[in-house]
């Protein structure tokens, strides 16, 4: 038995059929959202599969697909692309916070959820917001700096509090 689920992904209405036990990760990949990565055994421990559900960062690998019915999903494809990057993406690239890039979509979306709520986060708030997102390459310092810089750009502020 499959279910029919209607949702909105990156501002576009989408309807998909899925098994009631399917995860959101499986569905998003099958729909072609290749930015959504899998970095652990779908056990919620790496953050690579992070997407936004009604603006909140969630782990798609442990989210049942039917739960997104009638709600708003955002993947990195909906934020920007190399031709028109989102300021968060720009800050990550400019700051050397992208190495292999595997963790980056999840990091960028977790950052988006943070900055939408806390426009000028402290280092601790950044670390806390990204604590579920693992990066095997960067050592995190460049990522945290990129989040800080993105916050400044988005605010257009001249905040020199570091
Ligand atoms: S794939 Fe690792 S938390 Fe989802
Ligand atoms: S840039 Fe490689 S895992 Fe983060």
Small molecules in complex: FE2/S2 (inorganic) cluster
Main sheet record: 5 strands, mixed
Compute the number of strand runs: 5
Class by alpha and beta content: alpha+beta
List the domain count as a whole number.
2
Order of helices and strands: EEHEEEHHHH
- Strand order, largest beta sheet: 2-1-5-3-4
Looking at this structure, what is the CATH superfamily of the largest domain?
Answer: Beta-grasp domain
**CATH architecture of the largest domain, please?**
Roll
CATH fold topology of the largest domain: Ubiquitin-like (UB roll)
Sum up the structure in keywords.
5 helices; 31% helix; 162 residues; alpha+beta; Ubiquitin-like (UB roll); DNA polymerase, domain 1; binds FE2/S2 (inorganic) cluster; 2 domains; single chain; five-stranded mixed sheet
């Amino acid at each position: 038995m499959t279910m029919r689920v209607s949702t909105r992904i990156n501002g576009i209405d989408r309807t998909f059929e899925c098994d009631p036990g399917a995860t959101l990760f499986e569905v998003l990949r099958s729909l072609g959202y290749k930015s959504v990565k899998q970095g652990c055994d779908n056990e919620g421990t790496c953050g690579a599969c992070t997407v936004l559900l009604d603006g909140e960062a969630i782990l798609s690998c442990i989210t049942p697909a039917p739960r997104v019915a009638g709600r708003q999903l955002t993947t990195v494809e909906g934020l920007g692309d190399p031709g028109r990057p989102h300021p968060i993406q720009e800050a990550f690239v400019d700051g050397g916070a992208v190495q292999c890039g595997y963790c980056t979509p999840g990091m960028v979306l977790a950052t988006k959820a943070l900055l939408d709520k806390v426009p000028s986060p402290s280092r601790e708030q950044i670390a806390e917001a990204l604590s579920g997102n693992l990066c095997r390459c960067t050592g995190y310092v460049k990522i945290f700096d990129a989040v800080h810089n993105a916050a400044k750009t988005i605010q257009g502020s001249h905040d020199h509090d570091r």
